[in-house]
């Protein structure tokens, strides 16, 4: 009897233009609190800040590995004989004592890029605790543009650094070195680590596009090329 009554009610409702709508479909869709791309973006941003900072203070950008005359140069440090015998160029307060203008420029560019990366990483972490919406998208967009700028700045700093190989201090230890020619010295792990960090940072603006929890309308991607 109940089935016949329900069937008749449905037929009458169909004739009058009424349609049964499930109650679950009337509820708003549950907002996703996390996305795989957003997770990867936050983790990669945080890791690259550590890589950038570690390579920036590394004294092994240019190295000469020999038993007696081992020496290494970084942006701010100079080590001789062993890695434990290191000192800054004229002290931390004397930036002008860095032996080359190219190295001074590179230090400013790389440090500025690290600051931008650190700030964008903080913004990326903040988006984790924000609900999906315009505020989250704007923060992701801002962080993406900051990361794009950081990539260009740090890449410029890495390209400028080899111009300082013709300084008298480097030639004293590396022989007849010149721009982009280290002579008896070679590229150290600190410089290579910085290059790898910049290459990985290129992907951060792309991840920031799809980092918001509402992926149906992704944020505009900052143009790199």
Can you give a write-up of this model?
By secondary structure, the protein is α+β, with helices and mostly antiparallel strands. Helices cover 52% and strands 7% of the residues. It has a five-stranded antiparallel sheet. A hairpin with a 3-residue loop joins β2 and β3. α2 (36-56) packs antiparallel against α3 and α4 (134-160) runs antiparallel to α6 (189-201). Residues 21-33 have low confidence and may be disordered.
Q: Which word captures the global form? A: elongated
Number of helices: 7
Biggest sheet, spatial arrangement of strands: 4-3-2-1-5
Strand content: 5-15%
Approximate helicity band: 40-55%
- Quote the distance from N terminus to C terminus: 72 Å
**Biggest sheet, open or closed, and with what strands and sense?**
5 strands, antiparallel
User: What is Rg?
Assistant: 28 Å
Q: Which stretches are poorly predicted, pLDDT < 50 over at least 5 residues?
A: 21-33
Count the beta strands: 5
| Category from helices, strands and their pairing | alpha+beta
Give the integer mean of the pLDDT values.
Answer: 78
The SSE string, one letter per element, is HHEEEEHHHEHH
Task: Give short descriptive properties of this protein.
alpha+beta, five-stranded antiparallel β-sheet, 225 residues, 7% strand
Please provide a brief summary of the model.
With 225 residues, this protein is of the alpha+beta class.
């Amino acid at each position: 009897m109940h089935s016949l009554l329900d069937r008749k009610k449905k037929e009458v409702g169909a004739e009058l233009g009424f349609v049964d709508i499930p109650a679950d479909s009337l509820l708003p869709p549950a907002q996703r609190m996390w996305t795989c791309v957003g997770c990867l973006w936050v983790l990669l941003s945080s890791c690259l800040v550590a890589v950038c900072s570690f390579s920036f203070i590394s004294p092994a950008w240019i190295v000469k590995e020999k038993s007696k005359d081992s020496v290494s140069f970084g942006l701010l440090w100079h080590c001789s004989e062993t890695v434990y015998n290191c000192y800054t160029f004229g002290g931390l307060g004397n930036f002008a004592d860095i032996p080359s203008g190219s190295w001074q420029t590179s230090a400013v560019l790389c440090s500025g890029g690290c600051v931008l990366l650190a700030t964008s990483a903080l913004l990326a972490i903040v988006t984790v605790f924000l609900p999906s919406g315009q505020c989250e998208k704007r923060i992701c967009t801002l962080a993406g543009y900051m990361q794009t700028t950081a990539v260009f700045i740090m890449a410029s700093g890495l390209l400028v650094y080899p111009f300082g190989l013709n300084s008298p201090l480097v030639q004293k230890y590396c022989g007849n070195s010149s721009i982009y020619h280290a002579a008896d010295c070679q590229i150290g792990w600190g410089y290579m680590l910085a290059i790898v960090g910049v290459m990985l940072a290129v992907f951060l603006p792309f991840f920031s596009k799809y980092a918001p929890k509402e992926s149906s309308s992704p944020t505009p991607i900052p143009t790199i090329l």
